[in-house]
Give the backbone structure.
Amino acid sequence: MPEDAENARLRRWRRLAIGTWAAMAALAAVSFMAMFVMAATDPTENIALSRNDVVSAPSGERTWRGTFWNHSDSLYTNLDAVILFLDKDGNPVGQARGGAERLEPGETFNLQATLPADAVNMRIYQLRWTSDGGHRAVLGPYRPWPFGYVMDTECGELRLKIGSCVPQRERS
């Protein structure tokens, strides 16, 4: 009889332990899913630098070309970008400015500027836009990046499937 009571207590403890671990695992899974959705829908990541090239002319003059891409499924208006070109000490030696009145999902806008001879990298100094509902976002300054570094260049198969990315296309 005492063995039956002990076995019953042990079974109850096991059921409680299994239930507790299952609840904790479910809570962790839901937390990770929520973080994934928040990251995938973060409006501060929806306009990405997808081109950051330096082109040299035969005369030796260098030109910087950049492209910003709306890879979200939202419309953005009144976009404005300020790019600083930095020397080896991190001091600004030139800049590029540009923007777009409207940037539909998947659309890009291009910037181009003559690159000073002593420019060794670039920094997105400021990126501003207005999104649905009139919300104004102002981002920057970002950390300095070497020429050639981009934030995002294409939509992967998974991102297309879950709708977190729209392929690039020129503005119409």
Remarks:
- The mean pLDDT is 87.
